Prior knowledge:
The chain is α/β, with parallel strands linked by helices. It has nine helices and seven strands; from the N terminus they run ααααβαβαβαβαβαββ. It has a seven-stranded mixed beta sheet with strand order 3-2-1-4-5-7-6, sandwiched between helices. Helix 4 runs parallel beside helix 5. The longest helix is centred in the N-terminal third of the chain and has 14 residues, at 26-39. The mean pLDDT is 92. The site of S-adenosylmethionine has 22 residues, from helix 3, helix 5, strand 2 and helix 7.
Amino acid sequence: MNVYSYYDHTPISERNPVNTLSTPPLAPLLERLFEEADAASPATSPAFAGVSNEERERLMRSKTDYLDFYGQLKDFPLPVSRETGALLYMLARNGGARTIVEFGTSFGISTLHLAAALRDNGGGRLITTEFEPSKVARARQNLKAGGLEDLVEIREGDALRTLGAGLPETIDLLLLDGAKALYPEILSLVESRLRPGAFIVADNADYSPDYLARVRAPASGYMSTPFAEDVELSMRLG
Ligand SMILES: C[S@@+](CC[C@H](N)C(=O)[O-])C[C@H]1O[C@@H](n2cnc3c(N)ncnc32)[C@H](O)[C@@H]1O
């Protein structure tokens, strides 16, 4: 099986070991959600045809226009890639993650990968946050369909507020996938709780040069490397 096909067609009794990501109900659900996302890319949407590349770049990097920008994108799932989804699952499994924080829920595709890892690790808690109410509703629906809603707390609102309090003592994995310009601020909110060895996956971090400079600095307390085309993978040092 390759990373493009989560659905394992061999009978359950012959599968070893069973994993939540590659079995129903989650595997066919993710296949459908990725297919729908492929068909609904903003890049091919008439709504964004008039937005120049320069303007798109500016909006992606803006610390002030993100509410409006993502508001216009509220009908788009904008998920991590299939490869990044698989990476998230593997990192969370390998680290035996029990506490995960996610910035940027959208329709919950990355959330499903992370929650599946918690399930296969024996349980845990995933706090994720999203300010678009319609996206929160869709994410809840998807988590329910995937049988993972018991592991996930969705905090509705701006992450600068929702992640400002009530975080677990220690956090094993952080996914940054909301407004790119806020990555440094969100890292600051969570940083003191990241356990040594915790992974941080920052999607499309190229849009956040301040974030990259911070995690790549020699005395930053992180080991960090670009990974694949669009991910910065960092590890909290002791
Ligand atoms: C790239 S999408 C997330 C995709 C999701 N992680 C996945 O892979 O399925 C980014 C999401 O972050 C949300 N967002 C952006 N800035 C936010 C903020 N400051 N607080 C909460 N949500 C935010 C947007 O509304 C959007 O739905």
